[in-house]
Write a structure and sequence with these properties.
Layout (H helix, E strand, L loop, with lengths): L6 H10 L12 E2 L2 H10 L7 E5 L5 H9 L2 E5 L6 H7 L6 E4 L8 H7 L5 E6 L5 H11 L3 E9 H8 L9 H9 E9 L4 E2 L6 E8 L10 H13 L5 H6 L8 H10 L13 H14 L2
Parallel strand pairs: 2-3, 2-5, 3-4, 5-6
Antiparallel strand pairs: 1-8, 6-9, 7-9
Helix pairs in contact: 6-8, 9-12, 11-12
Length: 288
């Protein structure tokens, strides 16, 4: 039975192993059973599911997932937490613990072990690594039914927002290209040990079977998007022409913008995903 979703038991296990938080890993452990249950429900975990958990910590969420899923693969980068995980998860025989960096894990191999069936991802992500992990999951192109993540409120806002807002950027567009984002719970800082300086949110990302736009070259689309937001105050013409690796001239960018009926001075923050897709397709043609 899951027993770590509270302050007392979490404190006791940390004290037992004399575990010290590592700031570089952004470690904050959930101590609210209601929130833990909400996350499992939001991820729609069922007995036939294989769940990939990123950053299990001391196994708090893992216990809940193990009771709901058929199989859980827990990937933890901090080797100091492995003895704790082996203790707290000792009664769960459907859990595999991997001491690895998720950004270096062969996700395709994990998918093969699951028979190629879509996995569900659940994670409590530290701010500093949120975007790289989410992009790595999407760009791996392994079958993922959903990604349910705990992130800071401001990151959750970025995932959902649209053009013309200060939070709109490359993460917004990437998430909305691959999935439908939905905030399913707000989590105050008081639900964590130690208590962070900001509140969090649980976001469920439901993967699209097919992206909502028709990009000729997906990699080029995202290269254009990243270059468009690297320096937000620059016009698209300047930003894309100065971006290394795109191989575009200012004239080529302005030609594509003109074809789309857009001003030479337009900025990336005003374009929708559909317009970025159209722009990248046109730039591929004029660049040849």
């Amino acid at each position: 039975m899951a027993d770590l979703g509270n302050f007392t038991n979490t404190s006791e296990i940390l004290k037992k192993y004399q575990f010290r938080m590592q700031k570089k890993y952004g470690q904050n452990f959930l101590i609210d059973a209601n929130i833990l249950q909400k996350i499992v429900e939001a991820a729609q975990v069922m007995k036939e599911d294989c769940v990939l958990e990123i950053g299990p910590g001391i196994g708090t969420m893992t216990q809940y997932l193990a009771e709901a899923a058929g199989q859980v693969i827990a990937v933890e980068i901090d080797g100091g937490l492995i003895p704790i995980l082996e203790d707290t998860l000792s009664s769960y025989h459907n859990v595999t613990i991997l001491c690895e960096d998720i950004l270096k894990v062969d996700l395709a191999a994990l998918s093969e072990k699951n028979g190629g069936r879509p996995m569900k991802v659940v994670a409590n992500l530290p701010y500093y690594i949120t975007t790289p992990i989410i992009m790595a999951l999407f760009e791996s192109h392994v079958p993922l039914a959903s990604i349910t993540v705990m992130v800071q409120n401001e990151v959750a806002a970025r995932m959902q927002t649209g053009p013309g807002t200060k939070d709109y950027g490359a993460l917004s567009l990437a998430v909305q290209y691959y999935a439908k984002p939905e905030i399913v719970a707000r989590v105050p800082a008081s639900c964590f040990l130690p208590r962070p300086n900001v509140d969090s949110a649980v976001v469920r990302l439901l993967r699209y079977e097919k992206p909502p736009v028709d990009a000729v070259d997906e990699a080029f689309l995202f290269a254009v998007i990243r270059a468009s937001f690297n320096q937000r105050r620059k016009t698209l013409a300047n930003g894309l022409a100065n971006a290394g690796g795109l191989g575009l001239t200012r004239g080529q960018v302005e030609e594509a913008l003109q074809e789309m009926g857009l001003s030479k001075t337009v900025r990336g923050e005003t374009l929708t995903l559909e317009r970025f897709s159209e722009l990248s397709n046109r730039l591929l043609r004029v660049g040849k």
